[in-house]
Amino acid sequence: MAIKFDLFENPVKEGVSVPKLHAKVVTKDVVTTREIREAIRRKCTVSPADVAAVITALNDELYENLSNGYAVHLEGIGYFSLSLKCAPDINPKYIKDDDVQVRSIKFTPDKDLIDRFQSVYLERKVDEAHHSTKLDEEEVKQKLAEYFKAHSFLQRRDFERLTGFNSSKSTRVIRELVKDGVLKNAGTKYQPVYVVENLFSRNGLNKNND
After folding, report:
1. Helix axes 167-179 and 137-150, enclosed angle (nearest 10)
2. What sign does the CA torsion over 84, 90, 94, 96 have?
3. What angle do CA 172, 173, 174 make, to 5 degrees?
């Protein structure tokens, strides 16, 4: 069976007129733990309950060892380690322990696992559902002008429906609109709610545009 992929544009950088492309797997679906348990049962003599018990124990072992500052290596699979985060402008002289938090768990696959994919067949499948609509800057601003005639605030999902952009592109464009003074976040960092700031000014739209 082939791994399906499609080509997507990289975020456009200043001074670059032709965006570069990257290949990305078109994911079919998510394989659940139940399906993994059944697949392992068919390949060996253990029961689904035994597999579930091992997965639970492995979860506990990963947590305990990572919590104690170790990296974990599962032979034939790869390495697990913690990734941390802190504010980029933090002062090292005054940093406190709770200023640093766990960002995520990093996974680095073993070479043997990676090498197994060298012989897989790849086939392009155009994934229209994950391609963003093509709109230039002025078209986006015109859509915002129309939107704010009937609405007092905007969230990212509203912007997605308005422009046809996917989630990542919507987030990136909204960030640029905030930077240019077109929109303003009237909510919080983690629950942003955007209001119009300045439409059709030198950088963006004008509040009084009708």
Report:
1. 90
2. negative
3. 95
